[in-house]
Task: structure prediction
Amino acid sequence: MKIITISREFGSGGRELGKKIAEILGYDYYDRQIISTIAERHDVDENYVEYALNNHTWQTIPLTFHHSFVSPAIFSMPHVKFLNEQKHVIEEIAKAGKNCVIVGRNADVLLEEYNPFNIFVCADMSAKIKRCQERAEEGENLNEKQIKKNILRIDKNRARTRFFLADGEWGHRKSYHLIVNTTDWDIDKLAQAVAKMVELHGE
Amino acid sequence: MKIITISREFGSGGRELGKKIAEILGYDYYDRQIISTIAERHDVDENYVEYALNNHTWQTIPLTFHHSFVSPAIFSMPHVKFLNEQKHVIEEIAKAGKNCVIVGRNADVLLEEYNPFNIFVCADMSAKIKRCQERAEEGENLNEKQIKKNILRIDKNRARTRFFLADGEWGHRKSYHLIVNTTDWDIDKLAQAVAKMVELHGE
Result:
């Protein structure tokens, strides 16, 4: 079994890349379904799960959570409950034993014992802003400055979540097998290249 | 014409990787020859050039060198002279217009206008120490602690040289198209994968 994890900067095209790699290799693909499963199990709205996971105040959590004592009271907080559930769901995916691509959710950290192939996807800020503009939903009309602010905020949260779960730094070369910058790539071609790399890695 | 530049942590196997990529793609390969050329032109020993380039005291140079005024006196210092000569040699290689792989020497920064494909090669510390031990010259008998100290010293110098030449950070994802960690790779297979990636990038 081979597991590919994709961590990414917001707007870098990491999700699209992950999806295409899964298609090329015939792997299962997990992304949003993880949130849906958590929502279902707790009988709450998907958006609430997403919001709670991404927008909690980190001040309420000791940042050494993963190797120090913390008060049990913390586990009743929604985001901690959901983080735990997310961990379970991701572990269930791994235990199913099928080749898969998992985008986001710190799967690289959570599934460390399965030796996943860990990819980080980044892009230049101007490319990320452009991608966000092209993919904006109807009625959404943010200017460049607002989009950039969003990107930085979301990435800061992603970096913090990782810091909370593991020692390795988010987006740092030491934490991944591969870091790719999508800026001047055709995503289809890049997906082919990365899929080939994953195949060769296992040989 | 396509130029591939390889920057790397000491002991990560970046040079070996670069050489193999050049072989697979049939590209010219430049590494140590750059130093030899500088030595020849200044009629000095290769090792002196290497030493001067790697062991100067950065305190003597304003770190904003690349966009601020500095005293002309600085250009008479051997390391600055050699850095300038190195720049010329690398630019000559690019101007020759042939596909090539250039390892080290900040070719990624110096040849920015040629849009090279920039790769950074890293590895876990334990893998780098092992590689250094395997490649130690006869009579060289450093212990792990000494090897680690060497690795950190050399990498610190590389990071500083880059800082001196350009804004982008050494080893940071923003500065490269691709970062690969060689730790659990067979270098031959990784070279195949990266060569394939370079081919797809240009299509």
Remarks:
- The longest helix of chain A spans residues 144-165.
- The longest strand of chain A covers residues 3-8.
